[in-house]
Amino acid sequence: MEVNTNQLSLKADLIRLFEDNSDVLLAGETTEMIMHRKKAFELFRQNGFPNTKMEKWRNTDLSAAIKENYHIYFDPAFLEGIDLKTIFQCNIPSLVTDVISQLNGWFVSENGSLKKTQDGVIIGSLQAAKKHHADIVNQYLHSIANIEKNSLIALNTAFAIDGTFIYVPDNVHVEIPMQMVNIIRHYRNIFIQNHNLIILGRNARLQLLQCDDSVDQQRSVTNTVTEVFIGENSSLDHYKLQNKNNNSTFINSAFFNLEKNARLLTNGITLNGGMIRNDIHVTLNGEHAEANIMGVYLMDGSQHVDNQVFVDHAYPNCFSNELFKGILDDSASAVFNGHILVRRDAQKTNAYQNNKNILLTDKATVNTMPFLEIYADDVKCSHGTTIGQLDQNALFYLKSRGIGDDNARLLLMYAFAAEVINYIGIEPLRIRVDDMVKKRLRGELSICDQCVLHCSSKEKPVHFEIDMSKI
Amino acid sequence: MENNQIIEQVTSGEYKYGFYTDIEMDMAPKGLNEDIIRFISQKKSEPDWLLEWRLKAYRHWLTMKQPNWGHLNIPPIDYNDIIYYAAPKSKKELQSLDEVDPELLATFNKLGISLEEQKRLSGVAVDAVMDSVSVKTTFSKTLEKHGIIFCSFSEAVQKHPDLVRKYMGSVVPYTDNYFAALNSAVFTDGSFCYIPKGVRCPLELSTYFRINAANTGQFERTLIIGDEESYVSYMEGCTAPQRDENQLHAAVVEIVAMKDAYVKYSTVQNWYPGNKQGEGGIYNLVTKRGICRGANSKISWTQVETGSAITWKYPSCILMGDNSVGEFYSVAVTNNYQQADTGTKMIHLGKNTSSTIISKGISAGFSNNSYRGLVKIVRKAENSRNFTQCDSLLLGDKCGAHTFPYIHDENKSSIVEHEATTSKISEDQLFYLQQRGISEESAIGLIVNGYAREVLKQLPMEFAVEAQKLLSISLEGSVG
């Protein structure tokens, strides 16, 4: 089933759609879940979309995106007959992954909607998991995505039906990295809301690669919520590759819950995207938990990226480290808001926060807000932030060695970004990202990378009719 | 643990400056309305334009709501339960100290800031403001010789209306914020200072503000103008008597620095912080802002904040002139149930502007101490530079130290650096000092004084001594 927003404001349309289709949206849910989602809907009805008068949204303006009309799918019927391989194929040499694909926010099943390996690892569609693994899903789903503070989370909770579900049982080390590929391809504006649920039991281990791509220039709004539970002694490496078109608005909220001795590395590589907002909430919910939260963003044109990182040190002896680096060209803008909360009894906390930015032009803008909120005395917390430009001395040094100005600049920018990229633990992926960053810095990388048509640029209009039957 | 004991012992120190001077008051009735504002204006025989300005501010204030975005818990304030005007009934202009009410002099003596002492030893001209009306001005003759105007705000309104009219509200307009609007409507007095072109003020100018009678909000307004190529160092210090009811203090300070001028503003704030249970104490909700209007001008803020139940202020610099410099040095100490949300704003508009922010927060007891600062560099501010360092020290495990920096940069040739750390007193340092025979309490005092040294050394000599004393009293009471 598919619907369009067309009448009043997007908010009013969504409210109408929820009320008209609540039977479809809430089908098969437990009573508790229905209550929760209805409550979320009420919260959205009250608060609507965030606006720039709100402290957390001061520098990220959604108003242009929510003025448009969108197409919304309430079921994945459109997937019928689509072969995802013809749309998108990951071409990282020698990277072996288990691919989990989503098209327009819906799980694409190749061999059934749920797969269970010998180890007991379950991978598949969230919608199917709700049916077949209700015991697991109901225990975790919506439990850490707080709907009270952010109306977009509430909106997602009310609307999202499908998404990716990953369950790694106790004592299982998943050797092959999993790759969640979320692709957007549509013939008109589309509004996507999906919900991912990732659960690691005790002593488990997982490497997860999350790729968000669009394969055309169509306008889209994506409001994704991902809930991640990392059990005792478990470890998760999470890499995000964001390479989306300039007409996309991508709101990516991720909640991580770490138990005792759990370890998290989340590394977000933002290469392209019209407006990207990453809301990362990390709760260190047991002693000796460790979280590394990294990000690098390379923006140009009028792209906008907003990284909001909230780290909650709820237990003593935990460690967190945030490192975000960005290079901004043209009239791109970036926002960083790191917030470390050290609760009253979270003694012996070590928490670090660093945001470094390079501005390449006078039109680029950076807003950075590294917050510390500390209620315990025996802690080591620091935050640092710098905004500057390429080091003239370093530039001169390189040039004096016979390296041209352009290359010298590239080299320095690459070195700047490499600090974050070097944290990538999957070798082929690191090489690939490395390569992509280099390309990106040269201005060669976009989603049209592999295409010769240049349909996105007005200077090179392309019209040709090919009779496929003759080829 | 012994350490805890000492902290407890020290943190239980009582406020030492709590006493109350009984002087006959001339009061307005409680409440706030246009008639009260007319009453204040009439009491002070103000010109019509000023009354109009006050009324405009009041009408604007009525349309505003009290802000609540600070990391503070402010109990609701009943603005109609405040006496907006209270003046000591002094009748004639005084020529010497002998004529000053002896009770008032005794108050100052108890504070350890006797006028004679100040006059003789430090050569400081003191304009003592007691309950909103200036009582005594010394050294006026020296200042007169240089053409420096240093008087109470009401006197300036009478004698130099053109200057007041030209600059008042030019840095902090009455529309600026809720408390600035309130102040603009009901301010009773304050200080006014004008340094003419090319004059280097030979004295450290200083005023002591005190909040005296019960239930009177203090709404002073300070205006400092440094004309071209001038220099002045201005100091302000405060202590207030102990009282149970909360008192509101919403002051406005405006500084204008013209071309090549340098204005240095130092303050020590030690108003009544409330008792150990967090009852009473002053609400210090102040708007302080300076503008470097001309090229090469400089404004420097130094503050030592130890008092008040709630402190909410951001002494700021607008760096408009090219090559202008803004500085902010701050030590904020909170103890018991005190709350502070303080910091600065550096707004870079001119080319080659630079700013430095050094902030040291110390929290003890159940207090919450926040640094909040904005560094804004606009597109045109080429080659501008900012360095920010804000450190927090936590003493005890029931307090909070928070840092909320906002950095907004639109210019590629600018360099902005921010660093901050939060920690507690290092065991090693403590051990080292104790091992040398220094008692734990003195050792902690020493370490904290060392921690705050960077800021304290910015204070003028006369103030540095008092500030250190204050810090040790609060530290004796706070850091412990």
Output the keywords.
heterodimer; A: 471 residues; alpha/beta; ten-stranded mixed sheet; 10 helices; B: 480 residues; six-stranded parallel beta barrel; 12 helices; 35% strand; globular
Overall tally of structural domains of chain A: 1
Supply Rg of chain A. Answer: 22 Å
Flag low-confidence runs of chain B: 90-94, 117-125, 131-136, 208-216
Give me the side-by-side strand order of the main sheet of chain B: 4-3-7-9-12-14-17-20-22-24
- Tell me the β content of chain B: 25-35%
DSSP helical segment count of chain A: 10
Shape of chain A: globular
Largest beta sheet of chain A, briefly?
10 strands, mixed
Biggest chain-to-chain interface with counts: A-B, 36 and 35 residues
Helix and strand content put the structural class of chain A at alpha/beta
Mean pLDDT of chain A: 87
Structural class of the helices, strands and pairings of chain B?
alpha/beta
| Biggest beta sheet summary of chain B | 10 strands, mixed
How helical, in percent, are the residues of chain B?
25-40%
Distance between the termini of chain B: 14 Å
Which outline of chain B best applies? globular
Query: What percent of residues of chain A adopt helix (DSSP H or I)?
Result: 10-25%
Structural write-up:
The complex is a heterodimer of chains A (471) and B (480). Chain A has one domain (2-285, 424-470). Chain A contains ten helices and 22 strands. Chain A has helices at 10-25, 31-47, 63-67, 84-87, 126-132, 134-140, 151-159, 392-400, 405-421, 427-441; strands at 2-4, 71-73, 98-103, 106-107, 114-116, 122-125, 164-168, 178-184, 190-200, 205-214, 220-230, 235-243, 248-258, 263-272, 275-284, 290-299, 304-313, 319-328, 333-342, 350-359, 365-374, 380-388. In chain A, the strands form three sheets. In chain A, strands 4-3-8-10-12-14-16-18-20-22 form a ten-stranded mixed β-sheet, with helices on one face. Chain A has a ten-stranded mixed β-sheet with strand order 5-6-7-9-11-13-15-17-19-21. In chain A, helix 9 packs antiparallel against helix 10. The model of chain A is unreliable at 447-454 (pLDDT under 50). Chain B is globular, with a radius of gyration of 22 Å. In chain B, helix 3 (48-62) packs antiparallel against helix 9 and helix 7 (153-159) crosses helix 8 (161-167). Mean pLDDT of chain B is 79; it is low at 90-94, 117-125, 131-136 and 208-216. In chain B, the strands form three sheets. A ten-stranded mixed β-sheet of chain B has the order 4-3-7-9-12-14-17-20-22-24, covered by helices on one side. A six-stranded parallel β-barrel of chain B has the order 13-15-18-21-19-16. Chain B has one domain (2-477). Chains A and B meet through strand 21 and strand 22 of A and strand 22, strand 23 and strand 24 of B. Strand 22 of chain A pairs antiparallel with strand 24 (415-423) of chain B, so a sheet runs across the interface.
